[in-house]
Amino acid sequence: MSPSAAPTPDDVPASVGVRDDSREPYSLNALLLYFLRLGTFGFGGPIALVGYMQRDLVERRGWVSKQDYMEGLALAQLAPGPLAAQLAIYLGWLRAGTVGATAVALAFVLPSFIMVLALSALYLRYGGLVWMQGAFYGIGAAVIAIIGRSAYKLVRLTIGKDRLLVALFAVSAVVTAWTESELVWVFVLCGVIALVVNAPPRFLRRTTSAAALAPWLVTGLYGAASGPMLWKILTYFAFAGAFVFGSGLAIVPFLHGGVVNEFHWLTERQFLDAVAVAMITPGPVVITVAFIGYLVAGALGATLAALGVFLPCYLFVIIPATYFRRSVSNPSVKAFVDGVTAAATGAIAGAAFILGRRAIIDVPTAVIALVTLWMLVRVKGVSEPIVILGAGVVGIVAQYAKGA
User: What's the number of CA atoms in the CB half-sphere (13 Å) around residue 96?
Assistant: First the structure.
C-alpha cells in the first residue's frame, strides 16, 4: 500500500478494539417478541436461558455481536441478582436504552410470573390433597438432582481448573451447607481475595507479590397479611435481589435462611415446593419468590416479592451499563467477578446439600433423584419440565401405594 493510500478494512488489525457493528437490523418489537417467547417457553434454568440467548441472538439471528453479549454476561455476573434476567435487561438496554431495558424486563418476567400466580392459587387451595402432596413428593426429589446438575455445569463454565477459584467455591459450599444460609460477607470476601491474588491494586504490588386492600389480594396460608408484613416482604426480597450474586439458583440458600429459619414463613416442605414450582415453569428461576410471596400474603405478596427481587437487578444493569462497557476488560474487575462467581457457585452446591436432606427421605425419593440425574446426563435433548412432571406422576403413584 502506498503512503498516500487510505487503509482498507482488511488492513486494520482486529486488536485495535473497534466494535463489530456488522449486525442484522432488528426492531425493539422483534426483540420484545423474542423475550416474550423465551419467558414463556424457555425452560432449563439460568444456564440454559443464557445459552438460548447466545444461540438465538448472536449466532443465528446476528442481532447482538459476540463482544456485546460477553460484556453483558460479565456485567450480569458482577452485579447481584438473577443472571439470565440481568443479561436480558442489558441486551434490551443496548437496543433502546432505558425504555428497551424496561420493556424487555417485563416481557421476559411476566409470563412465568402469571404461571406461578396460577400454580400458587392451586397450591393454596388444594395443597392438602393427596395427589398434590404426592406430586411434590416426587418433584422435590427430581429438583435436587437438577440443582446438583446445574451446580456441576456452573463449576465447569465459571471455574474450570483454576485452583484459587476451586478453593473459593469449596469454602462457600461448606459455609452455606454448615450454616444453612447464604452469607453476603462470604461473597464479598471471595471477590476481594480473587482480586488481591489475581489482579492486585498498585499500592499492594509494592508490598506483596501475591496477588388496606381487598382481602383476597393479601390472603395467604395464615390469613390476610398486615401492612407491616407486606412491607417486610418487599424489603426482604429487595435485599435478596441486591446482595445475591450469580445465577437464579444462587438465591435458594439465601431465601432458605430467611424464609424458613429466620421468619418461619414456610416449612421446609413448602419451601422445597416453591423451588419446584420455579423449576417447572419457564423463565428465570428466581420467580420462585412470587410463589413464596403468594403463600405468605396472596397475590399482592407475590407481586411485591417479584418487584423487590427484580428491581435491584434492573437498576444494577441500566445505571452502570455505560461505565461498565468502558472498564469490562480491566483485570481487577475481571478478577473480582471471578471470585464472586466462584462463591456463588459454591453456595448453589451447598443449597443442593441442604435441600437434599429434606427432599430425599426414603428409597422412592432417592430412586427418583438418581433416575433424574441419569436422564439429565445421559439422555440427549431431554426436557427438564417433562422430567419434573414425570417425577410428579411417580410421586403420586408412590403416595397412593403407601396408603393402600
Answer: 15
This prediction has a pTM of 0.62
Q: How far apart are CA 113 and CA 156, in angstroms?
A: 30
Nearest-angstrom CA–CA distance, 175 and 182: 8
Q: What is the pLDDT of residues 359-370, one digit of tens each?
A: 788 888 888 888
Compute the distance between CA of residue 81 and CA of residue 380 in angstroms, rounded to an integer.
Answer: 30
**Would you say 274 and 295 are in contact if contact means Cβ atoms under 8 Å apart?**
yes
Query: Based on the number of CB atoms within 10 Å of its own CB, is 222 exposed (0-12), middle (13-18) or buried (19 or more)?
Result: exposed
Angstrom distances, CA of residue 58 to CA of 1, 50, 92, 94, 245? 35, 11, 14, 13, 25
297 near 233, Cβ under 8 Å? yes
Which among 118, 57, 63, 121 is positioned nearest to 84, based on CA atoms?
Answer: 57
The alpha helices in 155-256, defined as continuous H runs, are: 163-179, 184-198, 202-205, 227-243, 251-255
In angstroms, rounded to a whole number, what is the distance separating the alpha carbons of residues 265 and 258?
A: 9
Q: Which residues contact 214 (CB under 8 A, 6 or more apart)?
A: none
Distances (CA, A) of 36 to 33, 39, 308: 5, 5, 21
Q: Which three cell numbers stand for residue 130?
A: 393427596
* Whole-angstrom distance, CA of residue 398 vs CA of residue 120: 24
Residues in the chain: 404
pLDDT at 207: 39
SS3 content of the chain, % helix, strand, coil (to 5): 75, 0, 20
Q: Which contacts (CB < 8 Å, 24+ apart) does range 150-154 have?
A: 150/45, 150/46, 150/47, 150/247, 150/249, 150/348, 151/249, 151/345, 151/348, 151/349, 151/352, 153/47, 154/47, 154/246, 154/247, 154/345, 154/348
Residue type, 14: A
**Radius of gyration over every alpha carbon of the chain, rounded to an integer in angstroms:** 22
Element (H, E) at 224: strand 223-224
For the stretch 8-34, pLDDT in tens is: 333 333 333 334 444 567 899 999 999
C-alpha grid cell, residue 216: 383476597
